[in-house]
Amino acid sequence: MRQKGIPLARRRSGGGTVFHDLGNVNLTFFTSKKNYDRHRNLQVVTSALKGLRPDLDVRATERFDILLNGHHKISGTAAKLGRTAAYHHCTLLCSVDRALLSAVLKPTCQGIKSNATQSVPSPVKNLLDEDPTLDCDTIMDSVASQYNTEFGFSSPVTLVDPSDELSLPGIQRMAHELLAWEWTFGRTPKFSICTTFKLKDDMSICNATLNMDIKNGIIESCDIEVPSDWLPVELSREFSLHLIGGKLCPYETSVLAAELLRTIPQNKELERKMYNLCRRVIFMM
Question: What is the pTM of this model?
């Protein structure tokens, strides 16, 4: 994601990772907690789609996903319930860049262990691939109309500019909070990374291991093991010690790595190998 310049935000509703571009419609249903009903909300969506194309095979599942033709996932769900209010949001894949979606949702670091809910990979398909008339604007208009019908409203559609601070006071601050490290990583459940990775040099290659425990985004323990015939044990141990107490953050780790590299004796081979080790660990963050 960093290589492609795609920003990461963490929503307050929890759940699995969602890829967004302009071909992915995000729908949010705000209600009182008493009237919270995901089944009814998804019925609005499926009815709106069938209203555009009656023979379209779309149905909600027990996981509150929406499947196309009983197989392809076109919508996922997340929700948050407060003391008196609630919201439920879901997606609709209309014309998403599926190649990019698959690329960014593929984990770059294997071996992450936590108690968080695991994402369930599913085959996906764009509605536009099923029917060229099902573009984003057409679908949004149909969902709005079906929503009014379902809930007995007659309200016109109002376009909202999410960057308009005058209409939505505090919206920029809230958006910044969802993007900030303090929320995206600093408020995450405790997790660990236990993985093996390859280190390459011009003349050699070896397997290294990384064992790391992270709480509130802070590295509590770290053990990097590299074969001693590839890199002196004291150097990998020193790198591990440098990371403990720091943020799980590629930018801060890059600064720590740069500081450590400056302390290495004048040895081009060791410098190169340590640089490769630092780069691989940073890549997994």
Answer: 0.86
* 121 band by pLDDT with thresholds 50, 70 and 90: confident
Residue with tokens 């958006």: 175
d(CA 214, CA 221): 7
Report all structural domains of the chain as residue ranges with CATH numbers, in order of start: 24-179 (3.30.930.10), 191-283 (3.30.390.50)
With a CB cutoff of 8 Å and minimum separation 6, the contacts of 120 are: 16, 63
Q: What is the dihedral of CA 207, 112, 16, 2, to 10 degrees?
A: -50
Q: Spell out the residues 6+ positions from residue 11 whose beta carbon is closer than 8 angstroms to its own.
A: 18, 78, 178
Specify the DSSP class assigned to residue 12: T
The residue among 158, 17, 15 whose CA lies nearest residue 87 is 15
Kindly report the average pLDDT of the chain as a whole number: 93
Burial class (CB in 10 A: 0-12, 13-18, 19+), 116: middle
